[in-house]
Structures are given as structure tokens and as C-alpha cells.
Amino acid sequence: MVMTESVSKLLKKIQQKDQYTEDHCNRTGNLAVEIAVHMQLPEETIENILYTGKFHDVGKIDISAHILNKQGRLTVDEFDNIKKHPQSGHNIVMREMDNEHYAKIVLEHHEKLDGSGYPKGLKGDDICIEAKVILVADSFDAMISDRPYHEARTAEEAVAELRSYEGIWYDADIVEALVEILDKRKEFEK
């Protein structure tokens, strides 16, 4: 598939902001597509994930680098600032691409099944499937990556965390697809 000029512009914005965010978006996007293909989701859904997974965190370009790279725990105010990135990303996607569905996916990628996510507190089927897939891939990648505020977990530890919230935060079928992919890759320690 050929990347559109608009998608390329969004990826460039991320690249200019922060190397970690760019790398994280690439890994998350690739894993989300792998999950969608494994689940045999419709081709259009896979294509939506292919694009939006790569720029799901574009709204972080509006977040201070000090907050994004802070050592240690974030304050409540700093975390509230971070939680604005899905809305900011939605606005950027609408401005750059004028694609309501892509913007919706970016907006919903931190929503959780039980309504405890952000920014809207959506529940269950109110969250689009693309955002549910990206949430699992995003959460997994964040857990297994070193960040200034936490050391990387093992794949086993990350999957255990995802499984502990199956059906609460994360769609169980999506988590199971991730586990099957990791098993196939032999990413678990024996």
C-alpha cells in the first residue's frame, strides 16, 4: 500500500517531536496490523489500523517534551496534560486529513471497555474495533519498552498485565490474538 501524502506529513510531525514516540508508533502500528490480520478482520479495518496505528500518538506533538521525557512518576497535572493527546491527535488528523474515521480511531485509542479510559470514558461497543486493537498493541509496547519513568517488563509480565484486565479494559479476543502471535514468534521465555 502506498502511504498518502497526509499520512506522511503526520509521520514527519511525530519524527520531529520525539524519537521514542516515533519508534513506539511504528512498533505499535506494526503489531496492531499483525493482530488485525491474525484475527482476520475485514480488509478495510486492517487498512485503517495500518495508517492510524503509525500515527495514533500524533497528539503528543502538543505535549511538552519535559513531560514526555520526565524521570519518575508524573504529577496529577502532568498526567492530565498527557491525557489530552487523543483529543489533540483527533484535531490534527481532522486538520491534516479531514478523515473523520481516522480521527475517531486516534481519539478512542485510550478508551477502555469498562469506561475508565480517556478522553470520553466510552464503554464496550461504543469504542471502534480499530481503537481496541491499537489499545492492546499500544499497552503491550509501552510495557515492554524502557522509559524514563519505568524499566521494560518482559513479554510474559506484559501479557499477564493485559490478561488481568481482559474483558475489563481490553477485548479478550484481541489479547488472545496477541498471545498467539507472541507464541508463534517464540517471544516468551522458556
How is this structure best summarized?
The chain is mainly α and 190 residues long. The chain is built from ten helices and no strands.
What is the CATH architecture annotation?
Answer: Orthogonal Bundle
The named CATH superfamily = Hypothetical protein af1432
Total helical elements: 10
Summarize the helix and strand pattern as letters. HHHHHHHHHH
Question: Which descriptor suits the 3D outline?
Answer: globular
What portion of residues is helical? Answer: 55-70%
Walk me through the structure.
This protein has 190 residues and is an all-alpha fold. Helix content is 63%, strand content 0%. The chain has 10 helices and no strands. It has helices at 5-17, 19-38, 43-55, 65-68, 76-82, 85-97, 100-108, 129-144, 155-164, 172-185. Helix 1 (5-17) runs antiparallel to helix 6 (85-97). The radius of gyration is 16 Å and the shape is globular. The termini are far apart.
Q: What's the topology here?
A:
Layout: H1 5-17, H2 19-38, H3 43-55, H4 65-68, H5 76-82, H6 85-97, H7 100-108, H8 129-144, H9 155-164, H10 172-185
